[in-house]
Design goal:
Length: about 425
């Protein structure tokens, strides 16, 4: 028996030594990839094109192919890495394979400040198979990967939000120029799909703010318009109260999302089926400085910034104005001002607990339109593309950049941000 315990002790010691050795080579002092996220309107346009193909050409029961350019696959990977782990990523497509590099910062780690992951994805008849996986300087044997990946897929399939996507995904093909995703569309968004978009806690938060907004809308049912400031103040006041024992960032997100859907005249049932049975608010036109388009620009940008990030919010707003200059009402810098104001509002709402609570208190104390929207009457608007380029030279020209600098300065002085 003594020899048996002695053997176990030796085995345990060897295991601890091996584990320590692995940990030492897994973490590194420098990232292997470090890239900023740069989004431009062309990226939004290409993403919209892919979405439109699905919306207008794919019918329930069809198997379809989504084609993604190699540049956009790389951009998406880097954006997601930055968004969710504050890191950087790179995807290089090749014939029937892709090389993936990911660097994740690990703050306050004595073994090294970065976790660097590198792998080659090999095309199969279904989901690509990882090979040559490197975690720092440690090389993960392909045998381990072959055993681990099926288990990971099974685990993901047990979670509704992942299972739905995995069930639809049929094959991923790779070449130097593009990524092809073959998927089977069953049609529509089922109750399970909508329920998987948000957690039960988030659903409860949305219901609370929706109920308050509904109550407020019934108080003056004869009024057809309402200012955005009047809508935001009571909801952020409630957010401040709930944040005393809750998550200020989550409360702000919920309040912003509810106001955004109300401003757009949309029902929350598109993201949670339970909302179909919730009390219905009295519909009103929500305005900022007397204009409902400003309110829509402000709240949509605030939502994107609160749930995603400011880079995406800014580029979506800019893309919208470029589209308007070609086929709509024209490029308007005052719309851009509303976008930037909303982006700054949404950014502060979730930047940190202190800033989130500071914003709650500021809005709850009472605000007016000029606290939300910077001076705009002297900003050029309704410019067709030719006039916009003649006057400002395009989005890379000095005149345009100077105008954006002026708008950003005005936004930074908004009362709601101080």
């Amino acid at each position: 028996m003594y020899k048996f315990f002695q053997f176990l002790t030796v085995c345990l010691l060897i295991f601890v030594i091996l584990l320590g050795a692995i940990l030492v080579v897994v973490f590194e002092d420098q990232p292997r990839i470090s890239r900023p996220v740069i989004l431009v309107p062309e990226h939004v346009e290409r993403a919209k094109r892919i979405i439109n193909v699905h919306r207008y050409r794919v019918r329930p029961g069809m198997t379809a192919v989504a084609k993604v350019q190699s540049e956009d696959a790389d951009l998406a990977a880097n954006y997601l890495a930055n968004r969710f782990v504050r890191g950087s990523a790179q995807v290089v497509l090749a014939d029937r394979s892709a090389h993936v590099l990911l660097s994740i910062p690990i703050p306050h780690n004595p073994l090294g400040g970065y976790l660097n992951l590198e792998a080659t994805l090999i095309e199969t008849e279904g989901i690509p198979k990882p090979q040559s996986v490197h975690v720092g300087k440690f090389v993960l044997p392909d045998l381990i990967t072959d055993i681990f990946m099926p288990q990971l897929i099974r685990w993901l399939r047990q979670t509704p939000r992942y299972r739905l996507g995995l069930d639809a995904l049929k094959k991923v093909s790779m070449s130097h120029n593009e990524l092809k995703v073959v998927y089977h569309w069953k049609g529509g968004f089922t109750k399970e799909m909508r329920s998987s978009l948000i957690s039960e806690q988030e659903r409860e938060e949305l219901f609370i703010y929706h109920s308050l907004l509904t109550e407020i809308s019934h108080r003056h049912s004869g009024v057809t318009t309402v200012s955005l400031a009047e809508v935001l103040s009571p909801l952020l006041r409630l957010a401040a109260e709930r944040s005393e024992e809750g998550d200020a960032l989550a409360e702000n997100r919920a309040a912003i999302l509810v106001v955004t859907f109300y401003t757009l005249g949309k029902s929350l049932k598109s993201i949670t089926s339970e909302a179909a049975t919730w009390p219905r608010p009295v519909r009103k036109i929500v305005t900022v400085s007397g204009r409902n388009d400003f309110a829509k620009h402000f709240m949509v940008s605030a939502t994107i910034a609160a749930y995603a990030d400011t880079a995406l919010s800014d580029v979506v707003g800019l893309y919208k104005e470029i589209e308007d200059s070609r086929t709509g009402s024209g490029f308007s810098f005052n719309d851009i001002a509303a976008d930037r104001a909303g982006t700054s509002f949404g950014e502060k709402a979730v930047a940190s607990i202190d800033l989130a609570q500071q914003l709650q208190q500021r809005v709850a104390s009472g605000i007016i339109d000029s606290d939300l929207m910077p001076p705009w009457r002297d900003l050029p608007e309704f410019m067709p593309e030719a006039e916009f380029k003649r006057r400002f030279g395009g989005i890379d020209a000095p005149a345009y950049k100077q105008m954006m600098k002026e708008i950003d300065q005005r936004v930074s002085n908004l009362g709601v941000l101080h």
